[in-house]
Amino acid sequence: MPRQPRTGVDETILDAAAALFARHGYEQTSLKSLADAVGLSKAGLLHHFPSKDALFEAAWAQSRVLSGQVAEQVAPMPAGPARDRRALELLTDVALDRPGLVSLLFRALTAPGEDPQQAQDELMINEMFVLDPEKDLPRAVRVIAALSVMAVLTLLANQEGDKTTWRPLILATCYDALGHQEA
């Protein structure tokens, strides 16, 4: 079982590592590139996480914790536009604060088979948006589109350093992707 992050440094390492794993996959991400991404030597990185595998597992675990928190918050809400909007708000806030971890979570949608627990991640997303992909393919496509747009736009917002201005635009775009009309 991966350990939970101890400090802000560990959280920064996890987010940077998750971004690299999401972008390049586990096999193509080297320990050196992980260390370079957070400004540490390989030995310094291994002080925080004993191996690349441990770092990968910790990043997935933290990503699941964050998505699980979102799922728990929307679970009591009835299916529909209000629940979708709340899920998008919560996911966008997480993505703006922890873009790497959200990218890794969304990789479950774009790189099937990379992680043995991906089915759990897909199920959590389906539960968040009350989605049965086999029965409602158009909605499944819209949810994937909304989450993809969110991932790209939150990364851009972080690059621009202007999360406050971008947040409502991201939410409106994601909400539109789901086919909902603004009230």
From TrEMBL:
<feature type="domain" description="HTH tetR-type">
    <location>
        <begin position="7"/>
        <end position="67"/>
    </location>
</feature>
<keyword id="KW-0238">DNA-binding</keyword>
<feature type="DNA-binding region" description="H-T-H motif">
    <location>
        <begin position="30"/>
        <end position="49"/>
    </location>
</feature>
<dbReference type="GO" id="GO:0000976">
    <property type="term" value="F:transcription cis-regulatory region binding"/>
</dbReference>
<dbReference type="Pfam" id="PF00440">
    <property type="entry name" value="TetR_N"/>
</dbReference>
<protein>
    <submittedName>
        <fullName>TetR/AcrR family transcriptional regulator</fullName>
    </submittedName>
</protein>
<dbReference type="GO" id="GO:0003700">
    <property type="term" value="F:DNA-binding transcription factor activity"/>
</dbReference>
<dbReference type="InterPro" id="IPR009057">
    <property type="entry name" value="Homeodomain-like_sf"/>
</dbReference>
<dbReference type="InterPro" id="IPR001647">
    <property type="entry name" value="HTH_TetR"/>
</dbReference>
<dbReference type="InterPro" id="IPR050109">
    <property type="entry name" value="HTH-type_TetR-like_transc_reg"/>
</dbReference>
